[in-house]
Predict the structure.
Amino acid sequence: MKDNPSTLKTTTSACGGGKVMATPWHGVEPDPWHGVEPDPWHGVEPDPWHGVEPDPWHGVEQYRNFTFRYCQDVTNPGKVRVYIEHQPDYRGRLTNSHATHRLFSGEGAPPHICIKAAYLPDTFEQAQALAHRWADATENYIRTGEFR
């Protein structure tokens, strides 16, 4: 991903373990938030935060005004979960899980991107693309009230 305003670095984390299996990106329809079936942004149940030993396969990324942490998904083996460690303020917009497409695991964990299990990313590259799409949609939601 040349020409993208992000930097990805490997770091240690206490959020999942093991390598993420490389598979090709299967893609998501152009507007995964509304009117596309299946819609990958809905239907994932919250799950509890699971702490595990630090693992060097996890990455932290700065993308615009967002900070994402990529971790092995502890409830969906072989998938990557994207935690949102920092993001812009919603400036008075609704901040519930449905409006923002975030889930809160509790136990002190930051929220993570809410996406249907069938669309969970298999690789860091897929997770990064998902995080960037979510960040772009979040910035649009803050500006216009529409998560697109």
